[in-house]
Amino acid sequence: MSSPSLFLTQQGRRAADRRQVLCHLRALFGGDNTPSSLQLSAISKDSEMIFSEADTPHAALDEQAASPSDAHLLSIFQPVFERIAEGAIAREQQRELPYDAVSWLRDAGFGRLRVPQRHGGFGASLEQLFRLVSRLAEADSNLPQIFRAHFGFVEGRLNDEDEQGNARWFQRVVAGELFGAAMAERTETTGNSVNLSEDGGRWLLDGEKYYCTGTLYADWIAVSANQGDEHVAIAVPTTAPGVTRLDDWDGFGQRLTASGTTRFERVEVKDEQIFRRFKLGEGRTDSYISAFYQQVHLATLAGIARAVQRDAIAFVQGRTRTFGIPGQSSPRQDPLVQRVVGRLSSLAFASEAVVEKVSRSLDELWQAYLAGQATAEQYAEADIRTYQAQQVVIGQVLEATTLLFEVGGASASSAARRLDRHWRNARTLASHNPAILREAYLGDYYLNGTVPSKAWAERFAEAKAKDKEQPVQPAVNEGDLA
Length: 482
What we know:
The protein is an alpha+beta fold. It has helices at 10-29, 70-86, 88-94, 99-108, 126-139, 142-158, 163-174, 289-317, 335-370, 376-403, 420-430, 435-448, 452-466, and strands spanning 38-42, 49-53, 179-182, 195-199, 202-209, 220-227, 230-237, 243-245, 262-269, 274-279.
């Protein structure tokens, strides 16, 4: 079996080297005796080191400051989650977009959970982030998906060495600004048709995206576009002239996520809005962003399992008759009903345990990154573990959302209860990033040593080789917006 480290790009190796050198130097000269103006930075791709003056020191070590306690975070956000849960059924029945719920979360600082404390954020760990995502999903599973692109954007900045640019974006996030995404398209062929072009010294963005989750609620849209033979990731204000957002998402689940169309017609883009640039088909082996995006879905699914258990218990405890038994009875004393609820509790526990395991492994990788010690094997393992969790958690949660109806008769199907929303939402989430493709990647990895990021690049190369007449663009990966 070939080692995944063979696929670590030279650029990724240099970045890892720079981070490690920086950490060692700051550990040597850091502490209370370090002048506040001293900053060490590696400014070239060849790891050339310089000393430069700046007001804020680089915080590769500062990012490792103690995270807030779980109790502190819950004291802030649990009341908001409970408020959101109170209106979940009504929103579902009326298809009422949750602008108020998004505002409550924004005001509580949910969007700045991962922003470092030195920039005004909470500095929460990845474990804490995903734990809170699950709690929010238990209240209403639409909300975590609305915030998914936002958290992905923040995580991308945390893994970007452009400190000046990061500080600028973090300042916006701390002020309460939210980010949506415009990445995928609903076209005849897989690719990226949105284009960034130059016109009279201005950058102009044109094209259309679909599945633009969260953009109706956002202040910014992270857009994936082409510029010549390069991909670019751009942050565009939702209020910019030429931006049109449509509420035309027609999925039967996650109906309130605003995952519809966004159009860009000669939208002017400034240089500082371009936050990533890379060659078409260029794979990333030094990133856990794809795993991060999938983990948001898995944490959301685990939250749905918790909601199923909650609703099953509430349904049974409120009933006073059982099918086939004359007069009043207590279903909560029925061994068959108890068995169903017991199974639901086990499914919720198992899905949450798997998600916690993946969250912990991603947190460990994040800490290794900060220390400049992250390896290609760790990045590959992040994808592998997340794909494995995907295969298991989806089945567990879908089973729970169906088994839920066994605790009652026809009354469980009442539209007033909207218990069906759990299955519809879970099924829709499970359809994101096809599990069958990820399962094939797992088999290829264990049989042939092919890491998923390389498998993705090989699929692009194959498609390009088959059609040399027409340029083939790769399917846009969620990590492209990081």
